[in-house]
Amino acid sequence: MTKISPEFEVTMEEEDVLEVSADVSFSSNRFPKYKLGADNQILEEPKEDNQGPSLKEVVEQESANLSEQHKRLSVRDLASKFDKNLTAAAKLSDEAKLREVASLEGHVLLKKLRDALEFLRGRLAGRNKEDVEKAISMVEALAVKLTQKEGELIQEKFEVKKLANFLKQASEDAKKLVSQEKSFACAEIESARAVVLRIGEALEEQENNSQASKKQDVEELVEEVQEARRIKLLHQPSKVMDMEHELRALRNQIREKSMFSIKLQKELAMSKRDEENKYRIYALEGSENLGSYLRIQPCSDKAPLLSKSSIQWFRLSSEGSWKEIISGANKSIYAPEPFDVGRTLQAEIVSNGQKLTVTTTGPIDPAAGLGSYVETLLRKTNTEFNVVISQMNGQDHASHSVHVFHVGKMRIKLCRGWITKARENYSSSMQLCGVRGDGNNAAKAMFWQSRKGLSFVLTFELERDRNAAIMLARKYALDCNVMLAGPDDQV
């Protein structure tokens, strides 16, 4: 490690000396000091040895050493950042192992299915045998596709493992660097203590000199030390910023890999669902996210009519250990509401004593940008939405004029101009949820019972406005110790 200290040139003004004879020579520009010894002998005082470095140079050098020492100790924060990223990479590796186990189970299921079809082909003949052979070819094609997906997942796993190894090596290097710099710092601290003692002795000697020259030298030293510190602080953050940029780039790569992995998982789940739907009587159609709606569709000509069947929707937990009935959701179309985010939905169809179920491929995803939109609305004391009254007290509303739906912190109001349709404070008799009936506008419609005997079905302009109104009303009601939920029996 090279330490550089600035060089200083000291110029001294020569004293004026009177002219003397050329035969006289002086070894110095001042008279020597004498003292009388024994027998009146003249003794000259010993000369002082000024061969050592000046006080100014010693202070300057030690200031530079302490600044360099502070610079080395800053790498400890970088080591902690490497450890955090290493933990994230290990978590991704564990998730890849879980996906590998699920893929192995898929191969086992496909093999069992193919063996069963082979057994049927040996027992059937004619057209049925041809159908079985077609099914065998479709299973083989599905196995090839699953193998391709596994190849992509293996490649992704290799990249994640490579990234984890890189982060682990970087973390070990950072720890070694911290340990090495710590030892250097300890050694330099001991050296600095010795230098401080020497500086103290030099300062005591300096106090015997002129007060004016002392004050001037100290001021110059302070200015030089401050300038040296300023220069060090200007150049030190550059290395840290470079490493922070590298860490940010690594985080972006990990985020992109995670999103790509989730996308592959969803595509694989949809592919499996499409294959399974070929053998099912009913299937769900629609996007499985907040802001859309799901529709039960028959997959076979032999499927019973939905109009003559009994339908009931349920919410399932993420593990599938329990399910909750959605009161009033007994139609073939259902639009998820904010309560359904993160939960799996299931519909039961009962016809002629036979019960069939259809389930979403996974939990309902939140709407993009809805959370930030609601956070913006929460900063206001009152939020207004444009709505149209579709039903009032269970009867279709003839007028399709636009009304204003006010959601406040203490109450909800529905009005048109100066005419107020309803205005009620949050209470236990109030009910509010998404419409659970039929129709393509279910994702935009909301059911609101202001009080017993007065209820409305309101249609918003956008799906986002409907979900934001539900979330705002439930948040404000919860602040008033009121829980807003759906009705026990919605028409």
Automatic annotation (TrEMBL):
Transmembrane segments: none annotated. Residues 55-97 form the Stomatal closure-related actin-binding protein actin-binding domain. Residues 382-489 form the Stomatal closure-related actin-binding protein PH domain. GO terms for biological process: actin filament organization; regulation of stomatal movement. InterPro entries: SCAB, SCAB-ABD, SCAB-Ig, SCAB-PH, SCAB_CC. Residues 282-379 form the Stomatal closure-related actin-binding protein Ig domain. Pfam families: SCAB-ABD, SCAB-Ig, SCAB-PH, SCAB_CC. Residues 101-268 form the Stomatal closure-related actin-binding protein coiled-coil domain. GO terms for molecular function: actin binding. This is Uncharacterized protein. It comes from Carya illinoinensis (Pecan). The lineage of its organism: Eukaryota, Viridiplantae, Streptophyta, Embryophyta, Tracheophyta.
